[in-house]
Amino acid sequence: MAQGRSLAVPYGAPVLAVSFLACVTTGLELSVNNHAADFTLSTELGPAISLSCLVQNSSQAEELLWYRGDGQVGLKEGNRVNISHICISPVNESDNGVTFTCKLARDKSVQVSVILDVQFPPRLSGEETLYVEEEKDVTLTCNSKSNPQAQSTWLKDNQSLTLQQSRHELYQTSELFRLSIRKVHKSDNGTYSCLVQSPLGNGMRDFHLIVEDKKPVFPKEAVIAAVVVVTVTILFGIVARKDKFFKVW
Questions:
Q1: Which domain holds residue 167?
Q2: Section 90-98 average pLDDT
Q3: From which residue to which does the signal peptide run (predicted)?
Q4: Which of 63, 77, 164, 199 is geometrically suited to a Cys-Cys bond with 105, CB 3.0 to 4.6 A?
Q5: How far, in Å, CA of 144 to CA of 172, rounded?
Q6: In this structure, are residues 144 and 176 in contact, taking their beta carbons and an 8 Å threshold?
């Protein structure tokens, strides 16, 4: 019985120790900019923003880690124990939708994430002048980036474009607004404007469509046939007069 009691003490001790560590880890919390749970931070282009991560309920020094997406952020020595700050400057479009996460180094399951919602007015780009042969198809592509997503429409010569189901086709994504025209006519000549409207402002980009005369189709098959006929005729002529050629030589 004595042996049984002596074995019970070391067996139970590790269990108590593990339970104690679990309680310590579980009691720790992190907060980012006073948020103890994941959140979204709305901001604008340009001005820097600061994110501060703080350890809550800690009785000892705790190391913190920062991540931008899946990549770890490098921190200086004095900026990683119990409280840590990172600065994003300047804020640009590429930061939109990016997740920054603060984690406890010894238990990465203790973490708080912030998603950046970078808002900016429409920015437009695309080829300005397009030349197309009559009766060919053409596509005008307006690259449009904005947050929040903007409403887009097409104008022709500063007037609302009348869409014909058999000839016009629209395609739109969060960053693309496209107009396709089938078998263009001379009447399709003109300036097409991509108009984008958002709560933060509007944007417009002009596309000059120039419809050129239809080029005559080069009769390649007829030319090849003619060359073959001429070549064969010459060969037959040479064969027919081979005796004369031999006499000359």
A1: 127-212
A2: 94
A3: none
A4: 63
A5: 10
A6: yes
Last residue of a domain, which of 96, 119, 142? 119
Mean pLDDT score, 98-111:
96
Q: Are residues 136 and 208 in the same domain?
A: yes
Distance in angstroms (rounded) separating the CA atoms of residues 42 and 200: 14
Beta-ladder partners of 42? 117
Same domain, 32 and 69: yes
Residues 105 and 151 in one domain: no
According to DSSP, the residues that pair with 181 across neighbouring strands are: 138, 168
Domain assignment present for residue 237? The answer is no
Kindly state whether residue 182 falls inside one of the protein's structural domains.
yes
Give the count of alpha carbons within 13 A of 117, CB side only.
6
More reliable by pLDDT, 60 or 14: 60
Domain count, the chain: 2
Last residue of a domain, one of 101, 119, 137: 119
The verdict on residue 231 lying in a domain is no
| Predicted structure pTM score | 0.67
**Do 76 and 151 fall within a single domain?**
no
Average pLDDT over residues 219-246: 69
